[in-house]
Each structure stands twice: as C-alpha cells, then as structure tokens.
Design goal:
Number of helices: 21
Strand content: under 5%
Distance between the termini: 21 Å
Radius of gyration: 24 Å
Structural class: mainly alpha
Order of helices and strands: HHHHHHHHEEHHHHHHEHHEHHEHEHH
Number of strands: 6
Strand order of the largest sheet: 1-2
Helix content: 55-70%
Length: about 500
C-alpha cells in the first residue's frame, strides 16, 4: 500500500476513532450506564459487529453521501475528513455532543463551496430531513416498545432473576445488532470521501472478492474499534446516566429503538421489500447514532412525565448538533486553503463546463430557454457556480434546469475501464455493456449514458414513473451513473 495514501487516509482513520469514541458508544451506553454490562464486554461486542456491518453492508448509505459532493482529489479528501474529525473532537472536548454524520456533511459542503462544486440540493435536503426525522422516529419507537414491554411484564410476571437474565441477554443481542447497523450506516462518514480517490485494487481471497471499497471500510471500522476501546467509556456514562436514569429494561428499549432506526436507513434489502409491497422506500442515508439514542431516551422519559429528563443537557446536545456542520464546514475551508495556497497541493480537479454545439442540442431538448442558451453558446466556465451565475443573468433557472445545465455541459476525460469498477452492484446486462465499451473515451458524462443505453436496456430509465418499482430502478440507475462518473474520470 502506498505510504502517501496511508498518510492522507489518516484523517479518515482519525474520524473513525472519533466516531468510535462518540457515536459507537451510544449502542451500549444505556447498558453500561444501568450496570447490566461491563465496559470491556460492551467494547468487544461493539468492535466486532461494527467491522462486520461496515464490510458486509456499508455501501448503501455511502452512495447517497457520494451524491452530495464528489471529492475528487486525495488531498481534498484528506482535508474533508480531517475537518469533520476535528469538529467532532473539539466539540466533544468542549462538553458538547457532536455527530460524525453532521460533521462530514458540513465538511463536504465546505469542500463544495471552496472548490466551486455544485451541491446537490435534493440530496442535502434528504439528509437534513433525517436529522429531524431520526430522533423523532426513535422516540416514537421507544414509547411504543416501552408500552408493549410494560404490558408483557404485567401479563407474564417473570421471576426477578429470570427477568434480569433475559434483559442482560437481550441487551447483548440488541447491542450486537446495533453495532452492525452502525457500521453499515456510518462507515460512509468515515471513508466515503476516499472511495473515488483510493489507489487500492480489488483482491481475491479464497475465491471471494474483497473490493477496494470494502478494504477502505475495513480500515475505517478498525479505527472505530480503537475509538471504542480508548475513549468511549465517559460518553457511555453520559448517555447512560446523565441524560436519564433508566432501568435495565428501559435501557434495552432505548438500544433496540436506536438500532432499528439505523437499520431502516441502511438496509438495501428492506428498501427493495418495501418497493415490492408498493410502499414508499426509506432513503439510504447516513443518520446520526447520537440523535437516535438521544431521541429514544427522551421518548422513554416523556412516558414517565418528562420530569426525569435532563432538559439542560438536551439543550446542550441540540446546540452541538447545530454547531457541528457549521464548525466542520469552516474548518474544511481553512484546511483546503492551507493545502492549496501554502502547500501547493491540488485539493480538487480543475472543473470545466463547455457549452458546445452538441451540448446546445441536448439542452434545447431538455427545454431550456433559447435566450439563456444564447448567452452560454461556446463559452467555457471554471466552476459550477460561475456557469449558473452566467445562465441566471436574465432570470432564475428552475432546479431541474440548473441540474440539466451542469450535467450536460461538464466536460472532462472519461475512459471506461472495467477493472476499475466494482461491478457487484450491476446487473448482468449492465456488466456486459461496460465490458463492450472497455477502453472507449468520452468528453461528456451524457455520452457515457447514451453509449451504455444503446447497448443494454438495463442502462435505460423506465418511463412509467407511477410504478414504485420503476422509481426505485431509476433512482438506483442514477446512482450507478454518478458512481461511474466519479470512478472513470481521469
């Protein structure tokens, strides 16, 4: 492994350590706080299952986070991860609870602002919505489960020793499940920005393919495990004791509620099952473990009248949630400035938007106004912000028009290299089309899309969008194209 890459990825490992110290502890915090589990036992279980979740099922949320901003240089990825890690570390040291999810989102937006890259508003709004929905959903689940468990205990009336043994077992099993879902959902926070700039190659181990992305996720998960062992004990006590004094049964309710929320936002199997049942799918986005456990604890406290909840601590936690993305974005901009202006490192590939005649034709087909196109005809722009500003001199563009303009006019050098693509995500028809175009070069992203669509219907969007399965297919197809654009850009 390249030593320079290890240096740059160290910021991601630092972020993983921060997640282990702050977020991963939430899984067993209530169990340790209620003295049902020793810290050493909780740390071991948490570490093992975080690694499994990250390696086996960590790709879903990572793809959504990658759509927010495509960090395309290793130095830029280093600065982004370092900013998120420093924001979490500094806020925790200041006595505030920080979220790695909010930190990495803020850092990516900071990178977008510094480099002039376009921030996908839909993806950002989806992630922001989960910051509200996640703790509320955890609170509702905790309240529902608390009522169900209370009713069951009244009916069954188990012996106190039996109830204690079952509760301890339930905390262990639920904690393992929670650690797995944490790894699956939050590993994208740690290593997501490195997936497109990593020099790692896929390797085969005993007939099993170990992808470059999985290798990155394994490194990040091990860093999380180190964070759990070295710095999470105090955070466990904070969540388990200072926020709300809970019984062992309530501790289990909080953990299972937290774990279910993380599972809902990271399970690709559940997403497909909801589509099969013609139900709206839950977006696969990284959500905050801290928000989930705090929401669950508050839900339990509200059932008891709300008097036992430490509302002053809740206020401090809320301030931390608001401050985290802002602090991370600010630190990221500062780090990028130092790397680029003082150390003369490239933090982003040079962007180029060229409205050539073929692009003009595609934009007209998309319905853009002729006057707007006349202003842009034949011109080149060095950033997405400059292109949008020029296009909106006469009147503002609709969101769809801005996205179309940026998509069709972005020019770079793309070469289809089948070996560079993790094709486990693609169908047989999609893999065959990629192989048929191996070695081909393109200037525009839409040329890749057209070439693949001409070879296989699996690369064509489905027209009847009223069918839920078609909407899911089209959304996944767009994510696959976004992935190809990032991987194949030279």
């Amino acid at each position: 492994m390249d030593l320079s890459f290890l240096f740059f990825v160290s910021s991601g490992l630092f972020l993983g350590w921060s997640l282990g110290a702050n977020d991963a502890a939430n899984i067993f915090g209530t169990a340790v706080g209620s003295r049902m589990l020793r810290f050493s036992t909780a740390a071991l279980l948490c570490s093992v299952f975080v690694v499994l979740g990250a390696v086996v099922d960590g790709a879903g949320a990572a793809r959504t986070l990658g759509s927010l901003g495509a960090v395309n240089e290793i130095a830029g990825a280093f600065a982004t991860a370092l900013a998120a890690a420093l924001a979490v570390f500094l806020l925790v040291r200041a006595g505030m609870t920080a979220s790695t999810t909010q930190a990495i989102v803020g850092a990516i937006v900071g990178w977008n602002c510094f480099t002039g890259a376009y921030t996908d508003a839909d993806t950002l709004l989806t992630i922001l919505a989960t910051w509200v929905f996640c703790p509320v959903l955890a609170a509702l689940l905790a309240m529902t489960l608390s009522k169900a468990v209370e009713w069951s205990l009244r009916r069954l009336r188990p012996h106190l020793l039996t109830q204690d043994a079952l509760t301890r077992l339930a905390l262990i099993l639920t904690g393992a499940f929670g650690a797995y879902t944490l790894g699956a959902n939050n590993i994208s926070n740690v290593m997501g920005v490195f997936t497109t700039v990593s020099p790692l190659q896929d390797i085969a181990v005993a007939g099993w393919r170990f992808s470059a992305t999985q290798q990155l996720f394994l490194l990040g998960a091990l860093a999380i495990a180190v964070g759990v062992y070295t710095y999470s004990s105090r955070v466990m006590q904070t969540v388990g004791n200072r926020l709300l004094q809970v019984s062992p049964v309530s501790a289990w309710v909080a953990v299972i509620s937290h774990s279910l929320v993380l599972f809902l936002f990271s399970s690709r199997s559940l997403e497909r099952q909801l589509i099969d049942w013609e139900l709206p799918p839950i977006p696969l986005v990284p959500v905050s473990s801290t928000q989930a456990i705090v929401g669950a604890m508050v839900g339990i406290g509200l059932l008891k009248g709300g008097h036992a909840v430490n509302w002053r601590l809740i206020g401090r936690i809320g301030c931390g949630w608001v401050a985290t993305p802002l602090v991370a974005a600010t630190i990221c901009v500062f780090c990028l400035f130092v790397l680029q202006e003082l150390l003369h490192l490239s933090v982003a590939r040079q962007q180029q938007f060229v409205v050539s005649p073929p692009v003009m034709q595609r934009l007209r087909a998309e319905g853009l106004d002729a006057d707007t196109l006349g202003i842009l005809d034949g011109r080149r722009y060095d950033s997405a912000q400059a292109l949008i500003a020029s296009a909106e001199r006469r009147e503002p563009l609709e969101k769809a028009e801005r996205q179309a303009l940026l998509h069709f006019s972005y020019r770079s050098d793309y070469q289809l290299d089948a070996d560079a693509v993790d094709d486990s995500w693609f169908s047989t028809g999609q893999r065959q089309a990629l192989s048929a175009l191996a070695g081909e070069r393109f200037e525009y992203r839409w040329q890749i899309r057209d070439a693949l669509a001409s070879l296989s219907e699996d690369w064509r969007p489905r027209e009847d969008r009223e069918v839920p399965a078609n909407r899911l297919f089209n959304r996944e197809l767009q994510q696959k194209f976004d992935y190809l654009y990032r991987i194949l850009e030279r």
